[in-house]
Amino acid sequence: MAIPIRVNPQPAKAFSGIRLDFNHGTEGWELPVLPAKLSIRRSGSGKDYNLLGAGPIATIEKPGLAEIEFESFFPSQPGPYVATRRILKRPEQFADDIGRWMRSGYPLRFIYARHFDRFENPYTLQIPMTITGFDRWEEAGSPGDVFYSLKLKEYVFYAPVKLQAVKTAAGTTAVAKEPDKRPDLKVPPKAYTMVKGDTLSRISMKLYDGDSSRWPEIQKLNGIGNSELKRLQIGRVLQVPPPKG
């Protein structure tokens, strides 16, 4: 069953926003142009049975995973259709982010928020999701704009269940499951061993295709003080953040 949610790109008395967050919110952005329609599907998984003497009955089971689908575009120029205060990236950079997140093997978080003036608290929807489909194209008459369609499917965190034996007062053995841990959406850092001539800026250039601007991230991740920057030892193992491209 499809549940369409109509979104007015410029509501008079309401603010609407859609945001995609990745890697625990260290990456992400709001959609610069809101889609004309946002479709959220969640199908039921009940079954029908025909019982002797009772006739047909239907059982209610847990609903299926939510699926979200919409189309929009990344603008090359500001305009009245832009929902955000400013455009933070070039159109192809937005599209490249989605492609990279899709290839990463990690879920993102879909956030939909709408604020009504007559209510104090906004309506928000946050769902961890995987990208199941992403198409991008350009259209004549809109030079520089990147149009796209995006399909998302709800992600359910799972892990192997650990069991442990427990002795009861009656002397029998019961099995108890260990408590679940909070799922981790963060992409794990990698290790780098310093060599002669290395500085954090040079390491950043080596690891991120000539981009030296990410050295403060390496400094913060390893707890390196400003006074230590010129005294880093050869052979020191550093944790480095994953590449963004």
Describe this structure in words.
With 245 residues, this protein is mostly beta strands. The protein has 2 domains: 2-154, Elongation Factor Tu (Ef-tu), domain 3, CATH 2.40.30; 190-240, LysM domain (Membrane-bound Lytic Murein Transglycosylase D, Chain A). 12% of the residues lie in helices and 37% in strands. It is built from 3 helices and 14 strands. It has helices at 91-104, 200-207, 215-221, and strands spanning 2-6, 14-22, 27-30, 37-41, 48-51, 55-58, 67-74, 108-116, 123-137, 146-154, 163-167, 173-177, 190-193, 237-240. An 8-stranded antiparallel sheet has the order 1-4-7-10-9-8-2-3. Strands 5-6 form a two-stranded antiparallel ribbon. Strand 5 and strand 6 (55-58) form a beta hairpin. Helix 2 packs across helix 3. It is flat. The chain starts with a strand and ends in a 5-residue tail after the last strand. Residues 1-15 have low confidence and may be disordered.
Summary, kept brief:
By secondary structure, this protein is mostly beta strands. Helix content is about 10%, strand content about 35%. Pfam families: LysM.
